[in-house]
């Protein structure tokens, strides 16, 4: 996971490509539940300027939760995963129309203006 995050460009025209996206955090464990992973993913999402939904899910002993066809068996954990995905969908719809406003940052506007000035100077 960390390797994938490292390959995301830090910025594209002064804006992070992940900025303004919604994020759901879930984990699947081979053993007992540990919320260190979901807490760390929330932290990474914040540093990547993503809107992390309040709900999260953790499925312990995942090898017991799936059938031979690879589908998750009905359980409270299954319900929780569906709840998280529904919330991700709803919050994504709400945020989508407001992302430009919410991600419009003073420092990025200044950086963009400075780049535009430098391009004008280079033309001269």
Structure report:
The protein is α+β, with helices and mostly antiparallel strands and 124 residues long. It has a single domain, classed as Rossmann fold, CATH 3.40.50. The protein is built from 5 helices and 2 strands. It has helices spanning 2-6, 36-47, 76-96, 99-102, 106-123; strands at residues 22-28, 51-59. It has a two-stranded parallel ribbon with strand order 1-2. Strand 1, helix 2 (36-47) and strand 2 form a beta-alpha-beta unit. The chain is elongated and about 70 Å long. The mean pLDDT is 86.
Proportion of beta-strand residues: 5-15%
The biggest beta sheet is recorded as: 2 strands, parallel
Physical arrangement of strands within the biggest beta sheet = 1-2
- When the domains are counted, the total is 1
Shape: elongated
Q: Find the CATH topology.
A: Rossmann fold
Cα-to-Cα separation, first versus last residue? 46 Å
What's the level 1 CATH class?
A: Alpha Beta
| Number of DSSP E strands | 2
Radius of gyration: 19 Å
CATH architecture: 3-Layer(aba) Sandwich
Order of helices and strands: HEHEHHH
CATH superfamily: Flavodoxin domain
Number of helices: 5
Helical percentage: 40-55%
Derived structural class: alpha+beta
Mean pLDDT: 86
Unreliable spans are none
């Amino acid at each position: 996971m960390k390797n994938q995050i490292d390959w995301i460009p830090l910025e594209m025209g002064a804006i992070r490509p992940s900025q303004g996206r919604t994020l759901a955090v879930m984990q699947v464990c081979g053993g007992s539940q540990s919320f260190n992973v979901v807490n760390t993913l929330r932290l990474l999402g914040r540093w990547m300027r993503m809107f992390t939904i309040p709900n999260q899910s953790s499925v312990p002993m995942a090898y017991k939760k799936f059938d031979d066809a690879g589908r998750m068996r009905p359980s409270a954990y299954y319900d929780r995963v569906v709840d998280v995905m529904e919330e991700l969908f709803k919050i994504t719809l709400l945020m989508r129309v407001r992302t430009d406003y919410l991600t419009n940052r003073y420092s990025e506007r200044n950086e963009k203006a400075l780049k535009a000035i430098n391009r004008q100077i280079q033309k001269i």
